[in-house]
From TrEMBL:
Keyword field: DNA-binding, Transcription, Transcription regulation
Protein name as catalogued: IclR family transcriptional regulator
Native organism: Amycolatopsis acidicola
Matches recorded under SMART domains: HTH_ICLR
Domain of life assignment: Bacteria
The keyword DNA-binding belongs to this UniProt entry's keyword annotation: yes
Length: 220
């Protein structure tokens, strides 16, 4: 096994769990290498756009990782698109596919907007949100075992089979999401809707759960 490659991958794994960034000294101490070695590792990762430094010299993950993940996520998007399109046609609401990015964040992987609705919610693909805010993250947390101090909304989502949020990501927007049921080793995914009002949360929740179940079957 290549020790240098191993250490470089350790740096990336560390940065995944520290979305706010880390100093070079913190990285060196966590990996167990001299600061000079950590500097070389980071410079190499920077050259491949796998990490970056901000104006305070804190190091975080870089955009090059998105490019590397693209082939894997492309298969997921290909399978999910027709399901999201059917969901948005049935509800006339914006449908979204969200993945867990790290311990504290989720990422909007795909957005499908309704064509016939007079008004609809719009999001930017790639948008990052806190995992404990918004229906997508709450649905993913609800798929995990209960924890002490978890939000009441997570507990409620575990009981209902889908999560509901009100104005947590965007003011005045209702979110309804369900986790895609998969084995514990797979990347957590949720399917959901964003809309201005939800007069029948249970009906919309059932639509979302059905879509999530269909995607799970497609993924195998």
């Amino acid at each position: 096994m290549s020790k240098t490659l191993h250490n470089g991958l350790q740096v990336l794994e560390l940065l995944v769990t520290h979305p706010q960034g880390m100093s070079l000294t913190e990285i060196a101490e966590a990996v167990g290498v001299h600061r000079t070695v950590a500097h070389r590792l980071v410079r190499t990762l920077e050259a491949h756009q796998l990490c970056r430094r901000d104006k305070f010299k804190r190091i975080s993950l870089g955009t090059g990782l998105v490019r590397l993940a693209e082939p894997v996520e492309q298969d997921l998007r290909t399978l999910a698109r027709p399901i999201l399109e059917e969901l948005t046609d049935a509800t006339q609401a914006t449908a979204h596919l969200v993945v867990r990015e790290n311990e504290s964040q989720v990422r909007m992987l795909m957005i499908v907007e309704p064509h016939q609705a007079r008004m609809h919610v719009s999001f930017r693909p790639g948008q990052m949100d806190p995992i404990d805010r918004g229906s997508a993250g709450l649905a993913i947390l609800a798929a995990l075992p209960p924890t002490t101090g978890e939000r009441e909304e997570v507990t409620r989502a575990r009981e209902r089979g889908f999560a509901v949020s009100h104005g947590e990501i965007s003011h005045g927007i209702v979110g309804i999401s369900a986790v895609v049921p998969r084995s514990g080793t797979e990347m957590p995914i949720s399917i959901g809707l964003s809309l201005f009002e939800a007069p029948d949360e249970d009906k919309l929740g059932a639509e979302v759960v059905e879509a999530a179940t269909r995607l799970a079957a497609q993924l195998g």
